[in-house]
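Appendix C reproduces, verbatim, an entry submitted by the partner laboratory led by Prof. M.T., so that reviewers can inspect both the input and the predicted structure.
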Amino acid sequence: MIRPEMPPHRNLAEISAFLGISSDAANPVVAGVTSDSQQVMAGDLFVALQGESVHGAGFAAAAIKDGAVAVLADAIGAEMLHDANILAPVLTCDLLRSRLGELAAWFYNAPSRDAYVAGITGTNGKTTTTYLLDQIWRHANLKSGLIGTVGIRIGDVEYPATRTTPESDEIARILARAVEVGVRRIAMEVSSHALVQHRISGTHFKSVGFTNLSQDHLDYHGDMENYFHAKRLLFKAQFAERAFINVDNEYGLRLKAAIDIETVTLSQHGPADWYFDRIARTPTGFEISIRGTGGVLIEAATNLIGQHNLENLLLAVAIAFDSGVDPLVISDSIPSLCGAPGRLERVSPNAPFVALVDYAHTPDAVTRVLAAVRERGAGRVIAILGCGGDRDKSKRALMGRALHTGSDLPIFTSDNPRSEDPAEILREMVGELTLKPGALVIADRRAAIKRAVELAQAGDFVIVLGKGHESGQEIAGKKLPFSDREELSSAIGALK
């Protein structure tokens, strides 16, 4: 668990006063705030949140056994605790999930106010943008941190992540630890789920960035309008000072018109505050010239692949400049920048063909990534893709069409079928497509990867889409070890 080594200590009466609630309970000293019963340490206040299927109050007894000195719950949770004869002090608070972030930020002395925290949201590009921004900061010899899908890093110390954006109390602890060790630049991915679920409550961002919006998560949000409004929540004065918005898409233009905080626009082509004055393809990437606020000129060569990564780079560059990095330092950093793990990541570089894995799991991302791969050479594009079970079913046919259109040899397979029948998911992916010669449907993901490698010839591209950096495959309620990188490497090794 990430937490400051020297946390503030406050008593329960102070916490009650902050929340504006009365309490006749005992007044123990509290050393930490956590909503995860498995991460409780001695002296903690355990916050019992309502989960998707169970209430956190059901874990209060275990939390107290592990050292929690008090419990904070909503009315339902407080009643459950009363019925369970919990002996520790219990505080009751309305709207608990939204108040938790405010409480945690106050408890840990508002750490986001002591750093330049950049929040990045959008359907695609969040992870790559945060990684590029972090690399620029590190090139400038600035201590930095990352919070996102692939993991959490504070300075040079890495921690695993369980989801893209942590719970609000965990964010406060991460930022408090970062500030404690001198980290003053932090790039954070902000998901739409986190915004709706109040997970960034209490966090202050110096800047927030919007990449793009395309179909995803409609199983949760219902439709694109709800999805857009969820993303828009980040762009409010209560969270952020300044917005950086990619206006090369419809939703970016809508967002710019809908918000009332300072806005900086970005475009590959202009007119915008930040734009590419020149983009020239090279054998390894692009030569670029960027124009920015105040007449800034940044010229460099990049090895990043694909037009979509130029969007990510432009956003990272603009925020890096806003955070105080000299344009000359930014220019000097660009040739060495690389994408995030599992994003157009090359596997087995000595293979006779190019082997890649990528996290693309939306129709737009699949289209963009396959177009980027096709730009790189004349060989065939052999692509493997599946759709997750128990998720947005409406995008499956769109994903299948993007795979079929964007590759020479598409292979439809499974990707985390969860509780659903993999064969039914594949039927929905293929839909009404008339499959091109050579197209395959192979439900077993390992077998699909192996077959793609067997079919590849010198000069071809084999790309496995959907999982990227992930190391598990969820089938029939069980999460089994599975890495696209390892499977692709193993299949290539078996050719020898």
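The domain at 10-94 is CATH 3.40.1390.10 (Udp-n-acetylmuramoylalanyl-d-glutamate--2,6- Diaminopimelate Ligase; Chain: A, domain 1). Additional entries are available on request from the coordinating office.
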